[in-house]
Write a structure and sequence with these properties.
Radius of gyration of chain A: 24 Å
Number of strands of chain A: 8
Distance between the termini of chain A: 27 Å
CATH superfamily of chain B: NADH:ubiquinone oxidoreductase Nqo5 subunit
Helix content of chain B: 10-25%
CATH superfamily of chain A: Cytochrome-c3 Hydrogenase, chain B
Order of helices and strands of chain B: EEEHEEEEHE
CATH topology of chain A: Cytochrome-c3 Hydrogenase, chain B
Radius of gyration of chain B: 18 Å
CATH class of chain B: Alpha Beta
Number of domains of chain B: 1
Number of helices of chain B: 2
CATH topology of chain B: Beta Polymerase, domain 2
Number of domains of chain A: 1
Shape of chain A: globular
Largest sheet of chain A: 3 strands, antiparallel
Helix content of chain A: 40-55%
Strand content of chain A: 5-15%
Structural class of chain B: alpha/beta
Oligomer: heterodimer
Largest interface: A-B, 66 and 69 residues
CATH architecture of chain A: Orthogonal Bundle
Chain lengths: ~450, ~180
């Protein structure tokens, strides 16, 4: 493809894409060896991942001339039950062995970053909550924190603890669903039913608090949408009561099971150097032993006031990634226990009529409250100009929100660092040399959410 | 690998009251977050220096289209351009973050790739190219990633008219 720009003498005024650079027609698909950049070929074998000297292969040593007729390029997905949505993975196979892998994504791209530019900050939450649909609170929270940072406000203490409570419960529900889908992909069909059952416990609680099972729009700039309902503590305690026993069952069912361990141990190994080079975060990075957790390294909200361990692995294989998530559920339960102890009384949102709506009752009796309410939902609130990057630790890794404001009521630009998007880059490295059946286990172990990948 | 301290590349920099610099780039602070503003010529050297300082994880690369010229915080000496590529880096020990913002001109929307430093820049640079139309020289696979291959235009640009573009479907390939 050419690198020169705008050879556009035909850049006529009614072209809707006026001003755009020339468009590559280059294939997104996995091309044959002879057509592929040598460095890309080297990528999968660690040659260009900045490994220590000696551990890495020289790019020049890679045989580009591998006989074409011995390898076959096939599609896995986008319509495949194990691809967790619409992930399409192109595989170069030699017999049953995977040589090269290329994730082809974008099938779920709905332009949410563009949509956000047309939504006010008060509306933004409904948009971002739909990105990573298995852990919506994290996207809402990153967005709310970014807006609050631009506004230079701090939300009341209770709101911060409520946010943490909802996020940790959400981490549990997301990881429990991971256990379910991971089990299904590896042939443990009953685990799928168990996992969905446990998740239902948590979603029922979310519904009681937010009114919705998913896509809550509960965490909003300025606090949360509503206070916790009466009896919330008992509901949480019941969840914390039921889950440990169930988790122990699954421990017996999986961790101690020979078949499970044989299918997962030593499969899809990635080294810490490779994982860092490929921008992995979350459990996928921690499985290699790199203890990077946004909650611990860059504490936000009140995470510096709770005690928890960052779970790390040693090998970086499918089993480690499973075991880390498993133990993170327990760690989250530990955090939730502390949150229950520390939950303060007070406001659940900032009392600033310019940012949060007045209570419903006030609207009936106060003209001023009515006007504030009206202005807030028709014009929104203005956010000072500036740019900010805020990250939180979602079940899939670092989810970051880069927000640029021009001083108006809409974001000028909103960009999301979707952890699943970056995590998919590890697929070629993990899949190389394994079987297709291992590939299914590896994709599952990365726990990608395609809504988060494509946004 | 150029190991020498980064060259003081920007010749247009008058340097009157000795502004704050780091890794050869001018520094500003945005809501308590450190932001470096290298020139395009310094860009890769600045990032390389940061990597040698311990910023091992390239956490995000994105771009902003400042077509409508909203107010933005740039140090004196950095001329605003239409596009800005934003790179977020993380160091583990001690944990710290830094952000690099590079100005990219509309008429010459190129930038050298970070792929050689961070293999994880792959998807992010493809995303920026796809949605903003900024090319990364030296990237091994500069193709669209989220939009279909034959899509016209770059949707996240501010002059990309939403609502007026018909939905484009990929033509069915005849031979595959």
């Amino acid at each position: 493809m050419s690198t020169e720009l705008n050879d556009d003498e035909q850049l006529d005024a009614d072209a809707p894409w006026l001003g755009s650079a020339d468009t590559s027609e280059g294939a997104q698909e996995l091309a044959g060896r002879a057509l592929t950049d040598e460095r890309l070929l080297g990528l999968e074998r660690g040659a260009v991942l900045r490994l220590p000297e000696g551990a890495a292969l020289d790019v020049g040593d890679i045989n580009v001339e591998s006989p074409e007729d011995e390898t076959m390029i096939i599609n896995l997905g986008p319509q495949h039950p194990s691809t967790h949505g619409v992930l399409r993975v192109m595989l170069e196979l030699k017999g049953e062995t995977v040589l090269r892998t290329k994730p082809v994504i974008g099938y779920l791209h709905t332009g949410m970053e563009k949509t956000a530019e047309d939504l006010m900050y008060v509306q933004g939450g409904t948009n971002v909550t739909r990105m990573d649909y298995l852990s919506p609170f994290f996207n809402e929270c990153a967005f709310a924190l970014a807006v609050e940072k631009l506004l230079d406000i701090e939300v009341p203490e209770r709101a911060q603890w409520i946010r943490m409570l909802m996020m940790e419960l959400n981490r549990m529900s997301s990881h429990v669903l991971f256990l379910a889908t991971n089990g299904l992909d590896m042939g443990a069909t009953s685990m799928m039913i168990y996992g969905w059952r446990e998740r239902e416990l948590l979603l029922a609680f979310f519904e009681r608090v937010t009114g919705l099972r998913m896509n809550h729009n509960y965490i909003r700039p300025g606090g949360v949408a509503a206070d916790l309902p009466d009896g919330w503590r008992d509901d949480v305690l019941e969840i914390l009561d039921v889950l440990p026993g169930r988790l122990d069952e699954y421990d017996t069912l999986f961790t101690n099971q020979t078949v499970w361990r044989q299918r997962s141990e030593g499969v899809g190994v990635i080294t810490p150097e490779q994982a860092v080079a490929l921008s992995l975060t979350g459990p996928n990075l921690r499985s290699t032993g790199v203890a990077y957790d946004v909650r611990a390294d860059f504490p936000y909200l009140r995470y510096d006031e709770v005690e928890f361990d960052v779970i790390t692995g040693t090998v970086g294989d499918v089993f480690d990634r499973y075991a880390i998530r498993f133990n993170e559920i327990r760690e989250s339960m530990r955090i939730v226990h502390q949150i229950l102890d520390k939950m303060p009384k007070g406001d659940f949102r900032i009392q600033d009529a310019k940012i949060t709506p007045p209570p419903r009752g006030r609207i009936d009796e106060s003209m001023e409250a009515l006007i504030h309410h009206f202005k807030l939902f028709t014009e929104g609130f203005n956010v000072p100009a500036g740019e900010v990057y805020v990250a939180v630790e979602s079940p899939r890794g670092e989810v970051g929100c880069y927000l640029v404001s021009d001083g108006g009521s809409h974001p000028y630009r909103m960009h999301w660092r979707g952890p699943s998007f970056a995590n998919l880059q590890a697929l070629p490295v993990m899949m190389r040399g394994g079987f297709v059946a291992d590939g299914i286990a590896i994709i599952s172990s990365l726990d990608p959410v395609l809504g988060d990948v494509d946004r | 690998m150029a190991d020498e301290p980064t060259p003081d590349g920007a010749a247009e920099e008058p340097a009157a009251p000795e502004p704050e610099r780091r890794a050869g780039a001018l520094v500003t602070w945005s809501r308590g977050q450190e932001v470096l503003h290298p020139s395009r010529a310094q860009y890769v050297d600045t990032v390389r220096t940061l990597k040698e300082e311990g910023f091992a994880l390239c956490v995000d690369i994105t771009a902003v289209d400042y077509l409508h010229n909203p107010p933005r915080d740039l140090p004196p000496g950095v001329a605003p351009e239409r596009f800005e590529v934003v790179v977020n880096l993380v160091a583990f020990d001690p944990p710290r973050r830094v952000r690099v913002r590079v100005q990219v001109a509309e008429t010459d929307a190129h930038l050298p790739t970070l792929w050689d430093l961070y293999a994880g820049a792959d998807f992010y640079e493809r995303e920026v190219f796809d949605l903003m139309g900024i090319r990364f020289d030296g990237h091994p696979d500069m193709t669209r990633i989220l939009m279909p291959e034959d899509w016209e235009g770059h949707p996240l640009r501010k002059d990309y008219a939403i609502g007026r573009v018909p939905v484009q479907f990929k033509a069915a390939p005849s031979t595959r």
